[in-house]
Amino acid sequence: MTAGPAIVVRDLRKSYGKVEAVKGVGFEVAPGEVFGFLGPNGAGKTTTISMLCTLVNPTGGTAEVAGHDVVRERDEVRRNIGLVFQDPTLDGYLSAEQNLRFHAELYGVPKSVMGDRIRQVMEMVALWDRKDAKVMTFSGGMKRRLEIARGLLHSPRVLFLDEPTVGLDPQTRAAIWGYINELRRLEDITIFMTTHYMDEAEYCDRIAIIDHGEIVVVDSPEALKAGVGEDRVQIHTADDARAIAALRDRFGLEAAVRDGAVTFSVASGEEFVPRLFAELGMPIRAVSVARPSLDDVFMSYTGSTIRDAEAGGAGNAWMRAMARR
Ligand SMILES: Nc1ncnc2c1ncn2[C@@H]1O[C@H](COP(=O)(O)OP(=O)(O)OP(=O)(O)O)[C@@H](O)[C@H]1O
Questions:
Q1: Closest by alpha carbon to 97, among 124, 121, 56, 132?
Q2: Which has the closest alpha carbon to 226: 299, 287, 296?
Q3: Model-level pTM?
Q4: Closest ligand 1 atom, CA of 320?
Q5: Of all protein residues, whose CA lies closest to atom 13 belonging to ligand 1?
Q6: Which terminus of the chain is less hemmed in, N or C, by CB atoms within 10 Å?
Q7: What interface predicted TM-score (ipTM) does this complex get?
């Protein structure tokens, strides 16, 4: 266990020419934490994680990972971290086990423990029975699982995952989260991950929301959702227009029809519902109350949903950068 924080970032910056990809971000990650870096395409997530992994040099500020400076102590940082990035770097012509063995040798994992460790990490991602198959025969999800196993081989103190579930089907995404949660239980490890899936950010201990190269907020998903304050209430009635007018006149609430139901936000939704039935003055056929989601949090901090923020993005940072010129 690291004595101090696993990651300390202060006023970290990166510019590519005139593009300020990261504009002075700062945060700390505690040992053992699963820390999520959340933001739309082009927000600066990959640039930040790349600086922490020593793959990109900052243009300003400092960052320490596992107690080492990412610029001055690059080798020490590299020894202490595992990486799972978006672009696969496995060798398709080698078997799954050979890929891991090659990596273990590269990282100087002692021969005496190598075999056991390879088996342990492959079992963790349920690939041990496929150890002899060539990686080129693997599905996208299996490759991602193998990359996670490889990232763990040398028992890193911090594991960096850049969009670990992007492009995978929901079932595989859920399985990968199962492995991450298992990892948290079995290994003394800190996990730093980027994602733009709101539902996945829920699994993190804390998340930082980054937008246009700046951190807008850092907190636990629960605290962020509680900070939004209001619940979302939906009611079904025979006359939506009349219901909307009644909500405005009797309760001063602004409602609108969304997803086929009259929808509005109110503090303590569950306590409000009995009043609603008593005082709306018209029959209600059905009602639902939902706590704020991280989508609502993102909306309240950035003024747009993460999907709106991504609309128009080509899905590739480079293509977007070119398109802007
Ligand atoms: N090598 C580069 N050269 C020039 N501009 C770059 C480079 N890498 C990133 N950028 C720009 O920096 C900004 C942040 O990009 P970055 O890839 O860090 O965002 P991201 O949040 O990781 O997005 P994504 O979800 O698409 O991976 C974007 O405007 C991008 O176009």
A1: 132
A2: 296
A3: 0.81
A4: 31
A5: 21
A6: C
A7: 0.95
